[in-house]
Amino acid sequence: MTPLIPDLYSFTEDHGTLLERKNGKKGRHGVIGVVHREEKPFWSHPALITPNNFKYKSLSDFSFNIAVGCAHGCLFCYVPSVSATKLKPKLASYGVTDPDAEWGNYALLRTWDERKFLASLRMAENTPSSELSLDGNQAVIFCSTTDAYQLFPAASAEQRNRVNDQAKFMVRRALELIRDHSTLRVRVLTRSPLAKRDFDLFRSLVTAFCSG
Ligand code: SF4
Fold this sequence. Notes:
alpha/beta, five-stranded mixed beta sheet, three-stranded antiparallel beta sheet, 5 helices, 25% helix, binds iron/sulfur cluster
């Protein structure tokens, strides 16, 4: 899928925190595409490694999700119906009233807290194999409810640079820490050619790397 690029957005003074899609593309359920934010482009919780309880998917045992929402907004995406809607009350405080219908129009980057990330990495590393899925490969998936490689919208060019630099840093740092402090595997699931920027890291993960 062609990644969204900053030129597709413009700040609309009358909506304050809303950005409008210039290309007139329709939203997930025919809603006219209004791209939110972002005076608040950061989700309040940090990005951590968490168990995902996947069964019979042969994907991973753990997830690392850098954001709530996804700027790619694929029409077939299962995430809004099984995950994002659970966050509806909290998403409302970010201006998202219908997480499913507005899927693709919001992407809120989680914060980075290295101490908490390392604690979550230790939790994953120390999880007994008896508690892991038979087909999970002791892997961490980047990502299961968003995409690690996307361009985040924001209300100004300055903020957009800030949030996208932070996303870039967060993904690289997490990959480095997993490589250097664990025996976990990494699976990258992405729709974006932006992943090319981390090919050097993928190579350094050697046998721990799975793609998909
Ligand atoms: S890239 Fe993945 S998470 Fe994002 S909308 Fe598409 S299917 Fe969903």
